[in-house]
Amino acid sequence: MLVLVINSGSSSLKYQVRDVAAGTVLTDGLIEKIGMGNGGGGDGEIEGPRDHAEALEQVDAAIHAELGDRELGAVGHRVVHGGERFAEPVLVDNEITRAIERLNPLAPLHNPANVLGIRAITRKWPKMPQVAVFDTAFHRTLPEHAWRYAVPDELYTNHGIRRYGFHGTSNEYVARRSAALLDLPVEEFDGVIAHLGNGASVTAIRGGRSVDTSMGFTPLEGLVMGTRSGDLDPSILVFLGRAGWSPEDIDTMLNRESGLKGLAGNNDMRSVVEASESGDDKATMALAVASYRLAKYIGGYHVAVGGARALVFTAGIGENSHQFRTQVADRLGALGIELDGGLNRGRSKEPRVISTPSSAIPVLVVPTDEERAIAEATAAVVSSSR
Ligand code: ADP
């Protein structure tokens, strides 16, 4: 089956056409500046589609040539927030679309854009099966003691304030591939997965299920990220509010000006590592804060899973930065973790072990592929609904 995978943002639309059985990508692309232009072309006109429907026309035109006489079998949407309702991918209909829309307050930047993408497809191809794959769904197995914040119950019952977790699609995929590399059924996989990209989170997996994860009500909680602070004392926000900062000021500071950017002046791990290697003290400190935070979580999650049997690195930093992996592993001596220098520095697109034979547990690098996971989930839902 050919599946069009759509990741619809408020002003961008990322797409990929995949042949699920062959595991290949036929074509992919990114439409940007949606809603910022007026169609482009003429004098003084700004380029960029007017809306998501117009962006979809551009996608259709772009993929047409690649498809030849083959037809799309389904569309899979990456949907950020599935709230408490969605524990797995679902076939989209009007009721599901409205349910996703009702979750808008929980993900005000993301879910409305996802709904625009779904509605654009519904209008253009009314008969096309569409599947929503939720970034939160894999974490629906979190036990209550892990998802509760210790605040009055009313915040949960009236506002849905609890921990949800994100990066679920990636975690589910990486857990499966890690178990396969270790020759285990995924139901027997107990481990810790560190998904380290621009957004970063770490997840505790017990018996193949998520039992804790570092992102919470929003993707802000947890690790030090490219531009997000991760954990801090909530009183800081109260303090800043009293000092005259608006909610928007605080939001911008925590989500866009913090993390590696706040500490080192650069949100890109490669640049921070290079700066540190050429003697930049702030970059060195940023790496220390980020690796220390992650190591603390790994220690905690080792306990949460009842003794991790593997530590897995994935996503841009996790897959590529041997320097950051080394800094994290150096802090995990108490767990008996030991990296093999040569294996750690090696490169491959395949899942691999980077620890020594005497390491207490294997350390793996397992490339993630969210689009592939979404395409596979979409094909599975559509096939089983027939
Ligand atoms: P996103 O969350 O946007 O999907 P990615 O998974 O692409 O992010 O990860 C982006 C991060 O990966 C950036 O911090 C980037 O510097 C880092 N990264 C990518 N390639 C390398 C590399 N070769 N060495 C170190 N860091 C890398």
From TrEMBL:
Keywords: ATP-binding, Cytoplasm, Kinase, Magnesium, Metal-binding, Nucleotide-binding, Transferase. GO terms for molecular function: kinase activity. The active site is at 135 (proton donor/acceptor). Mg(2+). Can also accept Mn(2+). ATP binds at residues 14, 195-199, 268-270, 316-320. Its cofactor is Mg(2+); Mn(2+). It catalyses: acetate + ATP = acetyl phosphate + ADP. Mg(2+) binds at residues 7, 370. InterPro entries: Ac/propionate_kinase, Aliphatic_acid_kin_short-chain, Aliphatic_acid_kinase_CS, ATPase_NBD. Substrate binds at residue 78. It is found in: Cytoplasm. Catalyzes the formation of acetyl phosphate from acetate and ATP. Can also catalyze the reverse reaction. This is Acetate kinase.
